[in-house]
Target: ABC transporter substrate-binding protein
Amino acid sequence: MTKLLASTILAAGLMGFAGAASAQEDCGRVTIANMNWASAEVLAHIDQIILEEGYGCDAELVAGDTTPTLTSMIEKGEPDVAPEAWINAMRTVLDKATEEGSLHYAAESLSDGGVEGWWIPKYIADKHPEIKTVEDALDHPEIFPHPDDAEKGGLYNCPEGWGCRINTTNLFKAYEGEEHNFELVETGSAAGLDGSMAKAYESGDPWFGYYWAPTAILGKYEMVKLEFPAEHNKEEWDSCITVPDCADPKPNSWTKSEVYTVVTDRFKQAGGPAYDYLETRSWPNSTVNQLLAWMADNQASGEDAARHFLKENEDIWTEWVTPEAAEKVKKEVM
Model:
């Protein structure tokens, strides 16, 4: 009886240890914002696969955009992860949330930062070498006619719901776009913005508007980013350019666009090694551009591109994870 009791206690202890080990490996449920632009979509799918297969998470993708997603994370603690958050547009409130501990900046998603600004096609820049700054372009509405009113110039705006829409709208006011006989052109979505650029480029027509990198379309169409004549003023940027309907924006310029993975405190505390992955995972624009070009050429989905990356770039992503997680992910994607 004594031996039986001892065996029972030992077995229970081993089961308890195994349960504890399993709990450590299983990070639980995690919601990941699937933003509606290609690089963010691919990264969200990469995170979902690695967190599920490598770290045992129950990872769910939820639709998101910059401003509503980050606002929801601040106010509601949901979703848990924004893989590619362009934080400049909401830096003040995000810094406050990280200082208070409700949110955390994990890895810098794009190791060399994002690129944002106002662009024109290279063939227009070559034809009009005098246009080097946004002020130069605004001085010539006749070169960049509005698609709905050729008597006015048109500046293509950032899509609805994105932080860059606030920035572009305020900068348009700061540089007196209306006084230069320009109007903002609302494209409605990322697809609409892409389509406007592609249509213009394929026809050799003028185009002037907001865009960013990394993207496949800037790899396909050679564009020139115009300079903003004012130096970047961070205080003015944070207090006005990033604020919707700022009453009196002053001329400013984009600085390096910092792009981070933003994580809720709940998941940082619960995620364990899975959170360590998010603190490590980072890639350069050159890698992302190549992947996005493959995605565009093959009309691939975000999940297709994620699996292609994991199959073809083992040397990159295995540096982000533990050896044990790497083996589990390889079994799933290879």
About this structure: Residues 115-241 form a domain with the D-Maltodextrin-Binding Protein; domain 2 fold (CATH 3.40.190.100). The chain has two domains: 27-113+257-333, 115-241.
